[in-house]
Write a structure and sequence with these properties.
There is one protein chain. It contains seven helices and eight strands; from the N terminus they run βββββαααβββαααα. It has 246 residues and is an alpha+beta fold. The protein folds into two domains: 3-77, Nucleic acid-binding proteins (OB fold (Dihydrolipoamide Acetyltransferase, E2P)), CATH 2.40.50.140; 83-243, Recombination protein O, C-terminal domain (de novo design (two linked rop proteins), Up-down Bundle). It has a five-stranded mixed β-barrel. It has a three-stranded antiparallel β-sheet with strand order 7-6-8, with no helix packed on it. The radius of gyration is 20 Å and the shape is elongated. The structure holds zinc ion. Zinc ion (ZN) is lined by residues 155, 157, 159, 172-173, 175-176.
Length: 246
């Protein structure tokens, strides 16, 4: 049996029998993996701490026919501060489930994983800025996946751009927009362009008025949903939490 070592982010877990769990994780080298973690629900199991959702863990795995099986898991980063608030957990869960949704078994996912981890680190430092980080994460994820919109001040016809075509992935004027296009002010366009082209650390730490972030957040969500085909259920959960603060 071949052993594999990888540092991977746990994005989902499911119970299996009385004592076991099946972990879904995203690894830079292996892409999305499924791992059976035997006995991990027992309190005495030493791997338990490294097997939770939102743990970045050093995994030692045995290759199996369908699943990897867990030899050991050691948590390298648990993002524990996210768990201080309901919002923090909800944003974190949404970020990792988006990551799960756009990665595949056997396809390396280093860039996607790095983006997700950087966003989670930023969220632990700025727990109140979830909406901004969600916007940045969604847009930069589109960029990593090669789906980013092209933002230009002008439509192809030379007129000033006033809309973003969700389907076409480019900015356009009112005469050349398609039915699903989102209207954007010049300010909103500049912010979109900045988020897409800045160094990631600058994009993750930028500030803008909440109303502008909220407005662009609906556009980025719509954009990603159109291009990915669907959004994870954790997005509904996040929206419910934000609508009904505890
Ligand atoms: Zn035009």
């Amino acid at each position: 049996m071949d052993m594999v070592k990888t540092r991977a982010l746990i994005v989902r877990t499911a119970n299996s029998g009385d004592n076991d769990r099946v972990l879904t994780a995203v690894s830079p080298e292996l892409g999305k993996i499924s791992v059976i973690a035997k006995g991990v629900k027992s309190l005495k199991n030493k791997n338990g701490a490294g097997c939770g959702v939102l743990c970045l863990s050093d995994l030692v795995l045995k290759e199996g026919r369908e699943l990897y099986s867990l030899v050991s898991a050691e948590c390298a980063e648990g993002f524990y501060h996210l768990r201080d608030t309901v919002d923090g957990v909800a944003y974190g869960m949404y970020f990792v489930s988006l990551l799960e949704g756009c990665t595949e078994p056997g396809v390396p996912a280093g860039d996607e994983l790095r983006l997700c981890l950087n966003t989670l680190f930023a969220l632990t430092r700025r727990p109140g800025d979830g909406a901004t980080l969600k916007l940045v994460y969604e847009l930069r994820l589109a960029e990593v996946l090669g789906l980013a919109p092209y933002i230009s001040e002008e439509c192809q016809c030379g007129e000033p751009a006033t809309h973003l075509s969700i389907a076409g992935g480019e900015t356009c004027c009112a005469a050349h927009k398609d039915p699903g296009a989102a209207a954007l002010t010049p300010d909103e366009m500049r912010v979109l362009d900045f988020i897409l082209t800045a160094e990631l650390k600058d994009a993750l730490f930028f500030n803008s008025p909440p109303a502008l972030i909220a407005r662009l957040g609906t556009v980025s969500e719509k954009y990603l949903e159109y291009h990915l085909g669907r959004m994870p259920k954790t997005l509904d959960y996040l929206k419910n939490i934000l609508k009904n603060p505890t």
